[in-house]
């Protein structure tokens, strides 16, 4: 328990330091605590340590957990989403980081309650590796254009997963590229609450913050290594 409290404090301190280096306010950066494989009793402890924003990457795993946890938690979906799970996902989660096709965005939007919108980020695959989902950088503009006019869609920004590298400085150019793309597209997302750059995980969130991240998705630094 106290180990978890210490880790939460450490991550928050590291976020504050990165903000200071980048001349940003810590209020601009939201910590999304990634709880995939983490049991609900530990998530409750994290809640007790003050965390209120959690991320899960599988609908099936998240559904029973969300039902057992306090209702004032903000849930973020960060995994690859199959179309047939879009309906359930839209009902469970507050923000979806991983919209990787126009079709999926429209499917989610169709599940918005009357007069409401689904908050979504478009996932960008910067490396071109086929193991990762997401729009290619040159496709994102068309996706924003296609979704911007849909009722039920609230475009909030972009998300990426940086490649794994041994020297974490090597990810900086990828984060910078996403930040540039974000700035270019902001003007084309008029009328949308464009405000989030979701990038940075345990290995690289300080660098992501230096490059403009507003949502960092941190799992292991808070909860320890996941089972293999
Ligand atoms: C698991 C996961 C994270 C968290 O990764 P850590 O290395 O544990 O911080 C962040 N983003 C996505 C999309 C993930 O699947």
Give the SSE map.
Blueprint: H1 2-21, E1 30-34, H2 40-48, E2 53-56, H3 59-68, E3 74-77, H4 86-92, E4 95-99, H5 102-109, E5 118-123, H6 137-148, E6 153-159, H7 172-186, E7 196-198, H8 205-210, E8 215-218, H9 220-223
Helix pairs in contact: 4-5
What is the string of helix and strand elements?
HEHEHEHEHEHEHEHEH
| Largest sheet properties | 8 strands, parallel
The computed structural class is alpha/beta
Q: Spans of 5+ residues with little confidence (pLDDT < 50)?
A: none
Small molecules bound: pyridoxal-5'-phosphate
Percentage of β-strand residues: 15-25%
Number of domains: 1
Write out the CATH superfamily name: Alanine racemase
Query: In CATH, what is the class?
Result: Alpha Beta
The count of β-strands is 8
What is the second-level CATH architecture? Alpha-Beta Barrel
In the sheet with the most strands, the strands line up as 7-6-5-4-3-2-1-8
Helix content: 25-40%
Principal-axis shape equals: globular
Number of helical stretches of at least 4 residues: 9
Write down the overall mean pLDDT.
96
Alpha carbon gap, first and last residue: 22 Å
Radius of gyration, rounded?
Answer: 17 Å
CATH topology grouping: TIM Barrel
Describe it.
By secondary structure, this protein is an alpha/beta fold. The protein has one domain: Alanine racemase (TIM Barrel), CATH 3.20.20. 40% of the residues lie in helices and 17% in strands. It has nine helices and eight strands. Helix 4 crosses helix 5. 41% of the residues are buried. The site of pyridoxal-5'-phosphate has 12 residues, from strand 8. Pyridoxal-5'-phosphate binds next to strand 8.
């Amino acid at each position: 328990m106290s180990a978890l409290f210490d880790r939460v404090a450490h991550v928050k301190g590291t976020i504050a330091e990165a903000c200071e280096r980048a001349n940003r306010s810590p209020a601009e950066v939201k910590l999304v605590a990634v709880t995939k494989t983490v049991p609900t009793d530990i998530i409750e402890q994290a809640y007790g340590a003050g965390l209120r924003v959690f991320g899960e990457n599988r609908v099936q795993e998240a559904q029973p957990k969300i039902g057992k946890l306090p209702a004032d938690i903000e849930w973020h979906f960060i995994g690859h989403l199959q179309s047939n799970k879009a309906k359930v996902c839209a009902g469970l989660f507050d923000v979806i980081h991983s919209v990787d096709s126009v079709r999926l965005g429209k499917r989610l939007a169709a599940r918005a309650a009357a007069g409401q919108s689904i908050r979504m980020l478009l996932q960008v695959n910067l490396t071109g590796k086929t193991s990762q989902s997401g729009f290619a950088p040159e496709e994102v503009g068309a996706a924003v254009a296609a979704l911007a006019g849909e009722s039920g869609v609230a475009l909030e920004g972009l998300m990426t997963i940086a490649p794994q590298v041994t020297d974490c400085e090597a990810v900086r150019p990828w984060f910078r590229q996403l930040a540039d793309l974000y700035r270019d597209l902001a003007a084309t997302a008029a009328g949308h609450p464009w405000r989030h750059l979701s990038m940075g995980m345990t290995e690289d969130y300080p660098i992501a913050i230096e490059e403009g991240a507003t949502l960092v998705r941190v799992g292991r630094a808070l909860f320890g290594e996941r089972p293999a």
